[in-house]
Amino acid sequence: MNSTQLFPLASSVIILVFATLVLRRFAARRSSHLLVWGIGLLMFGVASLAEAYSTVAWHPLAFRLWYLAGAALSAAWIGQGSVHLLAGAKLPNLLLALILGYAAAAVLFLSLSRLGIGAGVVAALIAFQGLIFAGVLWRRIVRRWNPARLAMLLTWVLIAGSIVAAYLVFSLPLNPAGFNPAEPLSAQYREILPPAAGVRKVTPVLNIYGTIALVGGALYSAWLLWRKETMPHRVVGNVLIAVGAMLIASTSAMVRLGLADYLYVGQLLAAGLMFSGFLLASARASMPSPAAPAKA
């Protein structure tokens, strides 16, 4: 077994152990954020196993599981666990304000591209105005809503989105001629999926949402603990979780920069960082949540 096969297999083992610990704690405490975290981590582990298999041979089921569980859904589900966890800090309200604000900005400014205005200018306008819209919605409307109910609403939206994504992934025709076992799936999925596949439009939305929720939730927890000047190991644990999540989110950027050879190393490092962060954030508790040291 060479390193190309070993790294994704090692990542899957780490993540599946991580998922098992989180789900065992859910069985003991019945906290919703632990269940959602566990589902997301199981998806990540399944995707890593599928990727490990794909370093040896082609199988359409392995590719579909990798794309659905890993590329499309795992980040969103893991991030949604942080949304439930930090409902008391109104993270669901903030996320909903951002979603609505940027959706309004996109509707307002995307039509400008038809007038010959460059895509970069349109993206900058959406980024700037979306933040303004989100701030207005937060101050005047969204922050007053019940955060626990919003967390459940966002979870049901995620469930619906996951069902749609699963249908799209498993109904697509694949091009096995575009597969090369020597390359990571992240570097070649565009050749395997149809060019106009609808799931490719859904995937970035789910990943952005999940990354913002996970990284933002972990850093916010770290900031709360740092401000209280208590339990510094839990501050470090949350920072490690955030760094690991950002490494996972940087997968597509690594491929575009020609660093696909280091992709498996990055994924293994991300899995190790998140699991180490979990262990640090769980210190002095039986088996606490990886993103919620403040409530362990």
Structural class: mainly alpha
**Could you name the CATH class?**
Mainly Alpha
Number of helices: 11
| Low-pLDDT windows of residues | 285-296
The share of residues in helices is over 70%
Oligomerization state: single chain
Describe the structure.
The protein has 296 residues and is mainly alpha-helical. It has one domain (3-88, 148-295): Rhopdopsin 7-helix transmembrane proteins (Up-down Bundle), CATH 1.20.1070. Helix content is 74%, strand content 0%. The chain contains eleven helices and no strands. The protein is globular. The termini are far apart. The model is unreliable at 285-296 (pLDDT under 50).
Descriptive terms for the model:
single chain; 296 residues; mainly alpha; Rhopdopsin 7-helix transmembrane proteins; 11 helices
